[in-house]
Amino acid sequence: MAGALSIRNVGKVYDPEGAGVEALRDVSLDIAAGEVFVLVGPSGCGKTTLLNCIAGFDTVSEGEIVIDGDLLAAPGRKLAPGADRMVVFQAGALFPWKTVLWNVTCGPVLSGRLSREEAEKRALALLSRVGLSGIEQQYPGELSGGMKRRVEIIRALLNDPRILLLDEPFRALDALTKSVMHEALLELYDLSGKTIFFITHDLEEAIFLADRVAVMTTRPGRVKTIVTVDLPRPRDYRVLASRRYGELKQQALEAIHEEALKAFVAGERELA
Fold first, then answer.
1. What is the Cα–Cα distance from 10 to 60, expressed in whole angstroms?
2. Same domain, 197 and 141
3. Would you say 188 and 198 are in contact if contact means Cβ atoms under 8 Å apart?
4. Each residue's pLDDT tens digit in the chain (272 positions)?
5. Cα separation of 13 and 27, whole Å?
6. Given 76, 153, 192, 202, which residue has the most CB atoms within 10 angstroms?
7. CA 250 to CA 248: how far, in whole Å?
8. What is the DSSP string of the chain?
9. Domain span including residue 117
10. Residue 166 · residue 93 · CB < 8 Å
11. Which of 115, 131, 160 is the last residue of a domain?
């Protein structure tokens, strides 16, 4: 299975010849193919910076990033964004003048990976699985926030990436819609088995979705601890009431609370 991600001693310094703001220091993570890995931490700890380095939107100052044994990022090596690392953003990135079906299928069709007929067949099947049957000819402006996020995730999956990168995609949604989105994401994960690298500030979200949760320190961001989430899959909302879920949430909370206090005292501000 493709999608094994290795982050080895990664550091990131912005403006190294000027102010020299160190965003990341000596970050090392090994993420298995097919794993849901969630990164949490206080604002400004470098979560989005790390995701951007994986995606190819930014470069690393130290260390290297390897996917399935392929060296993708190292100092002096420009990593270009690619369809093997699809990103779903908090703000969304659908083409508003195109239909849902066009948005979802444009990547694999334009790249020649799938015929239009096959892409549309797969798209309609995935839309149906997450409760979006019948919206394929609508435009993004006609959709709710939760519907847009589901469409964006399906668009990413239809490109058959090795890794799906999600940068707080549900942050702006209300609690009820967010709950529905969590189950929709897990439904699509169970179908695809893709490696997921997910960033969030929401500990409940992190524990519910993840196989493992990494807690980052204040800037410069380092890995403080990793919580292994041994909740069974498939999961649904009922796991939120389980004793084990509460124990795991408390474990993560204790780790992040200390870092949040440090960030508050230091007056940290989010970098990205």
1. 7
2. no
3. no
4. 789 999 999 999 987 666 778 999 999 999 999 999 999 988 888 999 999 999 999 999 999 999 999 998 889 877 777 788 999 987 778 899 999 999 999 989 988 888 999 999 999 999 998 889 999 999 999 998 889 989 999 999 999 999 999 999 888 888 888 888 999 899 899 989 999 999 998 999 999 999 999 999 988 999 999 999 999 999 988 999 999 999 999 999 988 887 777 766 666 444 44
5. 13
6. 153
7. 5
8. ----EEEEEEEEEESTTTT-EEEEEEEEEEE-TT-EEEEE--TTSSHHHHHHHHHTSS--SEEEEEETTEEEEBTTB-----TTEEEEESS----TTS-HHHHHHHHHHHTTSS-HHHHHHHHHHHHHHTT-TT-TTS-GGGS-HHHHHHHHHHHHHHT--SEEEEESTTTTS-HHHHHHHHHHHHHHHHHH--EEEEE-S-HHHHHHH-SEEEEE-SSSB-EEEEEE----SS--GGGGGSHHHHHHHHHHHHHHHHHHHHHHHHT-----
9. 90-160
10. no
11. 160
For the record, the structure tokens of 175 come out as 């609690």
Neighbouring residues of 261: CB distance < 8 A, sequence distance ≥ 6? none
